[in-house]
Specification:
The protein is of the alpha+beta class and 287 residues long. It is 28% helix and 23% strand. Helix 4 packs antiparallel against helix 8. It starts with a strand and ends with a strand. The model has no long low-confidence stretch (mean pLDDT 88). This is Excinuclease cho.
């Protein structure tokens, strides 16, 4: 059976498309009430379990496009009802979608599934070291580079960077070596000689820092939680964030919902918010 994941993270089984017919078994009443505004939508099965969760700046338009897509026949065949939640804007929809997918793990969502292990690269005494989120608070730690799902992925990224920047494979921890002995990369003229003393450890560390700079993880820029305010078609909503972690939404609330535990760094929230938040283009309330 051939499968792939489409651009919105929906698992597609291509061999079901030939059996597609418009899903008349989904009640028209739940389709008629879909609004043309930002928010999330949930396809549920006969036991009301979420099987696919999506988001859009126009809920109605996006859901109707699902209903007309033959490649999504299997998901539509299992669906029996569609729910929706409006948000104050696109960011709220993105955050709410990510939270619900991690919470419910719907069958046909793939892209935002929970990552079991997250790691990054830290520089310790001029050498890179793989560190793990379960041991370190990524949201409040300076000097981290890259966010990876496995140590192997981190090692491969480091290897690619080392080759491009002619870094020493011993000094980067990619190869074991003895003092003064050339690493393999030096032997083929792809290392500037930090392993043999031809390049100082400080100069090598500076070049390595420059090579890793594009992967730098930005620490949480506030002392505590904030609210991001969005408004759409009369709905003014606040999205509460702390330490790159989504705390929930509120209307008119002045404090975020109480969390059961300290806000833990969330890679999906970081990927959604880091660029627009650090660029300064959002309506932010510091709490």
């Amino acid at each position: 059976m051939r499968t792939h994941v489409n651009s919105v993270g929906l698992l597609i089984r291509a061999d079901t498309a030939s059996d597609f017919s418009y899903p008349s078994h989904i009640p028209r009443s739940c389709i008629d009430v879909l609004p043309p505004h930002p928010g999330i939508y949930i396809f549920r099965d006969e036991e009301a379990r979420p099987i696919y969760i999506g988001k859009s700046v126009n809920i109605r338009h996006r859901v109707l496009s699902h209903l007309r897509t033959p490649e999504e026949a299997q998901m539509l065949g299992r669906a029996r009802h569609i729910d929706f939640e409006r948000t104050g804007g696109e960011l709220g929809a993105l955050l709410r979608e990510a939270m619900l997918i991690r919470e419910h793990q719907p069958l046909f969502n793939v892209k935002l599934r929970r990552q079991r292990e997250m790691c990054s690269i830290a520089l310790r005494e001029h050498r890179p070291e793989i560190v793990f989120a379960k041991e370190l608070d990524f949201g409040r730690t300076e000097g981290l580079f890259g966010l990876f799902g496995t140590p192997r992925a981190a090692q491969e990224a480091l290897r690619t960077i080392a080759q491009a920047a002619k870094l020493c494979s011993v000094m980067t921890g990619l190869e074991k070596g003895s003092p003064g002995r050339p690493c393999f990369a030096r032997q083929i003229a792809r290392c500037s000689g930090a392993c043999t003393g031809e390049e100082s450890a400080a100069d090598h560390a500076s070049r390595m820092l420059d090579a890793l700079a594009h992967l730098r993880v930005k620490p949480w820029p506030y002392a505590g939680p904030i609210a991001i305010v969005e408004e759409s078609a009369g709905l003014r909503q606040k999205q509460y964030i702390d330490n790159w972690s989504y705390l929930g939404a509120g209307i008119g609330r002045t404090r975020p919902p109480k969390a059961r535990r300290a806000a833990a760094f969330d890679i999906h929230v970081y990927q959604i918010l880091a660029r627009p938040l650090l660029a300064g283009g959002l309506d932010v309330e510091i709490l």
